Amino acid sequence: MSDEPDSRFRIYQHDSRELKSRLEAEFEDVDGLVDTIITSPPYADLIDYGDHDEQVGQQNYESFLDDIRSIYKQCYEIAADDCTLWIITDTYKTNGRVVRLPFDIADELENLQNHKTCLEPDCSGHLQRNRGNGTLVCQTCGEVHDPLPESWRMEDNIIWDKLRTRPWHQKGRLRNVYEHITMYSKTDEFTYNKDAIRITDPDEFKKWWVNYPERYSPKGIVPSNVWEFPIPKQGQWGPKVSYHPSPFPEGLVRRIVHLASDPGDVVFDPFAGIGTTLAIAEALGRKPLGFELNSEYIDYYEDHVRPTALREVGSVQSTLQDEQALLQDRIYTLRIHKYAYELYKELITTDRNSLRDGQIEFIQATSDPTQFDQDADPAASLVFVCESAEDFNDVSMDAAMEGMLSEDKGSGDYYGVDFDPMFSTVNEYLDTLRTDPPTLLDEEVYLYQGKHNWAESNMEIGDWIECVASNDWLQYWSKTRPPLVSNLNIQVENPMEDRGQKQAGHQAGLNSFD
Ligand SMILES: C[S@@+](CC[C@H](N)C(=O)[O-])C[C@H]1O[C@@H](n2cnc3c(N)ncnc32)[C@H](O)[C@@H]1O
């Protein structure tokens, strides 16, 4: 097989009203040819994209909707069963009336065959849509028709916050900063890779994410249905000459491509403009296919948008993958350290046979971080070290773990970590470290002074053994919590805390990170 890209996957300078026949001239079989469609048609006659009689929207609004239905019907016919259609449009006000373009298009697409009269033999009654369930009801014989099995089905209507916009506002119409991204499916089998679009930048999390890492997926958060992407600045892709008036932002297309397609899939745009959809899709390993009337936009795509995307989108992608791996490490490390301290609190509660505050001298946590990207829950060992066995002989670790459950503080299951907690005396602990140290503790250890998110210092394992043997660990007690020693290293600011106060409460570490 040749590695050469298939040159049929490109922008065609044709009228998209003829898209099916044009594609049939290129491809032997167009059934199921496209896997994802990301597109924005002209908003009726709001913008003139060049002197082309075939430009949709230049006729009256009803003819425009007929064209739109015809184009998306042809899209439906060439779409694979798992295909989704993403249409970016907006409402606008003309002659004092708000035109509901996103929803007028939805009405057309959900009756793609344009049934207007009753389908029963001998009845030609007028069909009226039941707006509650989308069926078409004959006003003469009462027969109910469901157009959805042979139509695009609206799945979602996402708000695209453009962040920047023109400063216009008028009485009854505020400054317009958003547009609609309306998503449609062909069948229930549509591709929907939620994990591929998770947000991994903690700056976009709630302020309490460090305190509640168990509530955040290690893979990041699935975006809501309000998407913030600034409209592209002039010159983002190349010189401003011949620039298109309404190109897509790169991040918006990237998100849809990841969510709705897999590598190798065909991504199609029947109103390609300067080809943002196609360029990003190709840079992400998909096959680009599109139609556009204006040759200047096509040239701009070939000369600037495509080469820039092929050069730059890959590096954005690897940064995102690095961010994802970093978040995974952080969330599991925070969960393990937090659980250690929560279980400590449970062990010293006074409402059952328990330890007294201070009897646990320090806690050790170990976990193999190479497990963090596996599907199974990672394992973590916790050792609660006391002076003598008498301190903990009558204390049930199981009851403490149960207490975490019953008081809704989160079990190991809830934390997504398979915890193995135990008690040890200082002497047993030292013996083990000297004779048979856990492999995870054979190099550096990190010391936490009551904060699960901030390693105050690090040291060689030999120094830690000395520290324990000489009772120097005592200096790492915070006001209320014993020191935690761990093979896992983390230093993330807690947005809920004033860092200045936090610093003031700390004692000097042996080998501070600061
Ligand atoms: C809203 S713009 C699309 C912008 C595009 N998403 C981008 O990122 O550049 C709509 C485009 O549809 C094109 N167009 C209008 N009527 C068309 C038709 N009948 N066939 C193909 N393209 C058409 C216009 O020239 C215009 O570039």
Automatic annotation (TrEMBL):
Highest taxon in the source lineage: Archaea
Q: Which SUPFAM superfamilies match?
A: S-adenosyl-L-methionine-dependent methyltransferases
What are its GO biological-process terms? DNA restriction-modification system; methylation
Instruction: Enumerate the spans annotated as DNA methylase N-4/N-6 domain.
Output: 34-301
Q: Which InterPro entries match?
A: DNA_methylase_N4/N6, MeTrfase_CN4_CS, RM_Methyltransferase, SAM-dependent_MTases_sf
- EC number from the UniProt entry: 2.1.1.113
Q: Does the keyword Endoplasmic reticulum apply?
A: no
Q: Which Pfam families match?
A: N6_N4_Mtase
**Family recorded in the similarity comment:** Belongs to the N(4)/N(6)-methyltransferase family. N(4) subfamily.
Q: What is this protein called?
A: site-specific DNA-methyltransferase (cytosine-N(4)-specific)
Species of origin: Halorubrum salinarum
